[in-house]
Design goal:
The chain is an all-alpha fold. The chain has a single domain, classed as Arc Repressor Mutant, subunit A (Orthogonal Bundle), CATH 1.10.10.60. It is built from eight helices and no strands. The longest helix is centred in the middle third of the chain and has 19 residues.
Length: 150
């Protein structure tokens, strides 16, 4: 939508038309993270490996214990490091990241089945995704889709 507004304004200018006085602000809907932006600016190599591993396996039901085993650290170390550097627990980080990805997938492909999105973001079922999504955002994934498709 924003792209169309900007293109229409540019077209008007290129045809010699005038634009209304003042700035023409076209606000973005959201910032979309892509693979190229999935770099982690953390100084600790072990934490960077944990984050990379999680993002590479986001569709799998990765657990905190699995993250610890992947870099051979204790759960206590991982919890402390996440809390001190990222201001949330590993579980909160994984849940938030999965839910953000689910929202993005729902928005990008309105025809995608909720159970497929659940699988893509590491939930065991559509029911589990719906429960967590509703708890976090106060709305079901289907209702979120309807609100964002109109």
């Amino acid at each position: 939508m924003e792209g169309y507004s900007a293109a229409a304004l540019l077209d008007r200018l290129m045809r010699g038309g005038k634009i209304p006085p003042g700035d023409q602000l076209v606000p973005p809907l959201q910032v979309v993270a892509r693979e190229s932006t999935a770099t982690f600016a953390v100084s600790d190599d072990r934490l960077r490996k944990v984050l990379t591993y999680f993002h590479e396996h986001i569709e799998d039901p990765v657990t905190v214990e699995e993250l610890c085993a992947h870099v051979d650290v204790s759960r206590r170390w991982l919890e402390y490091t996440f809390q001190s550097l990222l201001k949330e627990t590993p579980y909160q980080y994984m849940r938030r990241t999965r839910l953000e990805l689910a929202k993005r997938l729902i928005t990008e492909d309105p025809s995608a089945k909720i159970y497929r999105i659940a699988q893509q973001v590491g939930f065991s079922s559509a029911k589990q995704l719906t429960k967590v999504f509703r708890r976090e955002f106060g709305i079901t994934p289907r209702d979120f889709r309807q609100r964002n498709s109109s």
